[in-house]
Amino acid sequence: MGAVVSITLDSNSWIQSPRYVLFNCKEIIPFHDVHIAKIKAGLPFHVTDDVIQKQHIEEFCSWLREYVMSMDASERKELSDKVRWFARYPDNEANRLGGGGWVALGCSYGWRLIGCALR
Questions:
Q1: Helical H runs in 25-110?
Q2: Which range has highest mean pLDDT (22-26, 29-33, 90-94, 114-118)?
Q3: Which of 110, 79, 85, 81 is nearest to 22 (CA)?
Q4: pLDDT confidence of 119, banded at 50, 70, 90?
Q5: CA-to-CA distance for 14 and 102, rounded, in angstroms?
Q6: Is residue 23 in some structural domain?
Q7: Through-space distance between the first and last CA atoms of the chain, rounded to whole angstroms
Q8: Is position 33 within any domain?
Q9: Which of 17-21, 48-52, 115-119 has the lowest mean pLDDT?
Q10: Coil, strand, or helix at residue 11?
Q11: In the beta sheet, which residues pair with residue 116?
Q12: Residue 72 lies in a domain
C-alpha cells in the first residue's frame, strides 16, 4: 500500500467525500426522510422534486450535524456509533494513501469509496 501522508483536501473533495458516505450509508438513510420532510414543509406545494432533491443534497451534511447535536444526551445515546460519528462535520484534514487514495471521515477513498471503519 505505501506510506501514509497527512494532506489537506481541496474544497471539492472535502465536500464530496462525506456527502458520498452520508448518501450511501444504510444507517443514515432514515435521516434523509426527516430532512426531506423538513424541506417540503418550508417550501410552496408547487416546487418540483428536483428542487427539493438539490436542496437536500446541498444541505444534508450540515443539517444532520445540527439535528444530532440538538438531541438531548439520552436521544444521542440511542443512535449508533456510526451515526454519531458521521454526524460530525467533516474536517478538511485527511491521510493520503500510497496508492493515490485518501482516508477522511473514517473512510478510505480512491476513485470510489473503498471501505469505512470507525476509528
A1: 29-41, 49-69, 73-78, 81-87
A2: 29-33
A3: 85
A4: very low
A5: 11
A6: yes
A7: 19
A8: yes
A9: 115-119
A10: helix
A11: 107
A12: yes
